[in-house]
Amino acid sequence: MTVGKRKIFNSFFQGLCRSMAFLAMAVLIVILVKVVTNGVGVINLSFLFKAPREGMTEGGIFPAIFGTVCITMLMIVLAIPVGVSAAIYLTEYAGKNFLGRIIRASINNLAGVPSIVFGLFGVGFFVLFIGRGMDKILGIPLLFGQPAMLWAASTLALLVLPVIIVSTEEALNSVSVSLREAAFALGATKWQVVRNVVLPQARSGILTGAILSISRGAGETAPILFTGCAYFLPRLPVFTIPYVHIPVINPLDQFMELSYHIFIMATQSTNVAATRPIQYGTTLVLIALTFLLNLSAIIFRIYFRKRPR
Amino acid sequence: MLNISLQKTWKEFRLDVAFEIPRGKVTALFGPSGAGKSSILRIISGLEMADRGMISHGKEVWFDDTKGISLPPQQRSIGFVFQDFALFPHLTVERNVAFGIKEKRRLNELKDLMSLIGLSGYERYYPAQLSGGQKQRVALIRALARKPDLLLLDEPLSALDWETRRQLQEDLKRITQQFQVTTLYVTHDITEVYKLADYVVVLESGRIVKQGTPEEVFLGKKLSTRIQIVGKVVSIESDSIIAAVTVLHDDQYFKTLIDTEEVDRLNLKVGDDVVIGAKSSDVILFKVLTQS
Amino acid sequence: MKYDLQSSNFRAANMPNSTSPESGLKRFGDKRISDLLVESRQANVNRQRVQEFIIEKLLFAGGMAAILFIALIFIFLFKEGAKALFLIKPIEFIGTHILDFDNNRVFACMWQPVGESGKYSIVPLLIGSFLVALPATVISTILGGGCGIYLAEIASAKVREIVKPAIELLAGIPTVVIGFLCLTLLATYVQNAFHTTFRLNAFVGAIGVSLVIIPVIASITDDALRAVPNELREASYGLGATRWETIWKVVVPAGISGVTASIILGMGRALGETMIVVMATGNAALVTGNIFSSVRTMTATIAAELGAVPQGGPQYCALFLVGAILFFITFVLNLVAEMIINRMRKKLRL
User: Fold this and answer.
1) CATH topology for B2-219?
2) Which of B77, B105, B180 is nearest residue C25 as measured by Cβ atoms?
3) Range of the domain at C206
4) Interface pTM, i.e. ipTM
5) CB-based contacts of B25: which residues, under 8 Å, 6+ apart?
6) What kind and span of H or E run contains B35?
7) How many domains does chain A have?
8) Residue A133 sits in which domain range?
9) CB-based contact A186 B143, cutoff 8 Å
10) A142-153, pLDDT tens digit by residue?
11) The pTM is what?
12) Which residue, among B147, B173, B176, would best test binding to C if mutated, counting the most C CBs under 10 Å from its CB?
């Protein structure tokens, strides 16, 4: 190959790779622009804070926003304790032993399970096995054994568990060994070392993982299709405690959810074409929500990586 | 008295030592890097386990493979000062020092500890805001705050620049004397051994080659000189009879004349560590005239 | 234990006129103090041991949860799926004999799980899944691989700090949004460009799915290439190679196992993707090789049918069987990718 040809090859292929990277970015921008331009028209306070009307052809999406917030909160409450303790066990206690390797392999596989399979599992295990089982044991008519926010959140928690474990593990591993040893040498027990030295320094990494998993959970649809999502609910999944009249979220109720709302409006509603603006508006809200979460996680990570240790 | 006998084999390295550390004295563990000094410290502290051997402190047995005893680090009364300081970056200086203090009522001693290392007023600083020397002093007092029976120092000054190092040698000497704590000091700097240690154990590739007082070990005899200066030979200018040897000690140069024969006998080369001794009879003293 | 360790211990030691080594020795050599310290240490030790034990077991339970759930997923999918094998003749999962228009008995592969004589051939579903996943993998291997190479080898640190988060953001877009845009916008563009019979088809789905796996392939490729030691690059430059020659003949071959693993993982994600395909591929269970035909994937079948199916019936169990097959395929793909990555790690450590 001549020198000239090699030079042309060199710049051609580098340019090709660069254009691919910029194509990916362009796709991102196109998606954002399309969603924003098509969706921004319907966004106003009543869209955000009112319920749907007229067979969902008009009105707002407040129940869906409310449901999304509720279910991700419930999900993170369920997933964080299990995920973080699993990560602590893996990094601080199990090390590289046989059990640790098996746990790690399980987590990797859990991360690769298709989301619809989680949906199937949610129905089979949470709703039917646990829920119906509880009903049977308590001897009550159908209460737990039907799709509900609790089961949907449990299914989502399972889905984001690997995200939390992996990011927590990464955060724990970034704490230097010498600090752990210093703490041991100062008379701290293993748990004291973890609690007083390792966890405080890994906090930001754990938080990043939590934010990422909230965004992941908020955007997932397949796992909740059959475990608790509702097409339309005339009321919020809220339950008022008698006598004191404090409203609390009812985890045994069904709920509406943003991503499911988009899916159902775009494919199965009575008049798909007429509700397009609502679909775009809902999409804009969902994308804004997940973007905000992802962006904050990314900024968080860059900021804490740069922080001198 | 701390009795130590250890054996441990790594892939290509074998550690096999037995020695005693006298109570209330500073013992230096001296040797080139890779001799196994730090490993000994880590094994004594319980951060690592020996394959075989026994570590006992008075009547307390810390490690004994025949009886299957191995106390975790938190049950051995030790203080450890690391080469890289290992201060907790998320805790203030004060909380760092308090880390090893288990009894709540002793927290009021913190103030005195801080002033002992000359860092009063720095309590709320974070380690990142301190200089290297200050960090190492915090690390030292943090190790001493729990009143350990044994203080372990792993080349505590090697990460510091030369000026700070000299300052800290003085501080170390003062503080260890004040606490009268049994100390094991790992170093590869012969000057530090002379300055700080009462007793020295010389280690080479996992084995003890010599032990005794610094003078016994390094000179093979007890000197009766008044002045002893340890330094490095930086130049030897010799003719057939006499040689001028220049020795660098801290930032001071000392030049002395010896027989060329002596140079050959000692096989003296540039870079060797030497002791310059002087009898009191010849020493001249001037008062430094300070400006008004 | 009434002895109070006064703070004056230290103060006295610090006062210039009282600093004699002897007095320090006395205090620290004091039997009573050290005995008391040992005693209190012993008392603490027992309490601590119990506490430590309980905490370790709790953390252990957290770790075991991962194993437990992967096992439970296995059990529940295969338990329900196995029921299908009793309710439906196994051969029917491949195809059944039906009467064609000329009343000839022909063997046909159909997924038509309605009514008494439901047809449960999973062949069209498998074909559908792969007709979406394979093109998607090819598209994203090219684009994602290019992105990964660009990020790891070509981009300056500054550009990288913008492009990498952008690709991560692309990965963060909910799949239902991509599915929605495929359904409303992309399908129209594709139909206008290729004049396809079906507006929603495998190709539209494949493009949508590739948007999800481009970031996967890009970031793993980036990691794999950045793990290649710098000496190799320098040696290559030293031998007069251009940057592209270095990338293509030295760096990529050195990181090839990571790149391969990323492609396999991407393929697994493509097969498992649900919302995009259910919205964008038309959902017609056809046996076809035409990429512009409507198809129905395994995931879309479950998503579309499970909600409207009576529990415990043949269709319900058949859907679990489809899920089990899907799970098995992705499980194997993940396992292979993991093995490749582990081997790479070992190789790089040497």
Assistant:
1) Rossmann fold (3.40.50)
2) B180
3) 122-349
4) 0.90
5) B182, B183, B198, B199
6) none
7) 1
8) 66-306
9) yes
10) 888 889 999 999
11) 0.81
12) B147
